[in-house]
Predict the 3D structure of the following.
Amino acid sequence: MGRKSAKVNTTAMNSAAMPDMSGSSISKQIDSYTNSNLKNVSASATATGSINATGMPNNYSPAGSISRAIDNTTMQNLNSASSKNQTYTAGASQASTLTDKDITADCLRSEILLLQSYNSACIESANQNVYSNIKNILNEEHDVHYEIFNLMKQKGWYPVSNANQQDIDNTRNMFQG
Amino acid sequence: MALTQKELGYISDELASEQLIIKKYQTAVNQVTDPQLKNVFQKNISVHQNHYNSLLNLLK
């Protein structure tokens, strides 16, 4: 589950734009994405405590107990989804190849990390010129990210589940009046 | 106004990231089989190349 591991690693990854992605470690990095995409559901779950599996491409995490409840059902959906199409085998002797899905997921992840660091850069800009340039780049990066995300969603590589109508109603009632 | 230390740090990091992601897409374009993905990746190479150039311009 890319979303969950993204949440776990956010702090570490924010400190550098693209950590551990140079040279020989690229494949290792990709492996770990794929692993967490397909396998480490339970590992990520224990690592986070509060799991964001709302299906948002970014680290979107609505606070509160309702979102926790939604997360649990979504997690079950995703659990079964991932066990069904588990094509990745991490055998030591087997040559594991990256599928189109793996490669696209890796690109999506890189875009997300880049977006996050551009966002920080934008916030910390002191010069008008730097600020507007970075903001333009940030804007275009969002479009790039969104396009990849949509492609993955179309192909069924990024399952998103709709919010429960009862939970939506509950949330509205909580903030209304 | 002169570039601040922080801005320079970010710009330098972003330049490195853009360079890396361009290489990633160049590799990805040749590895994927789906033409739709190929097109998007090819387009993203130039998008990131533009971003790289804008960042570089900030250092002039």
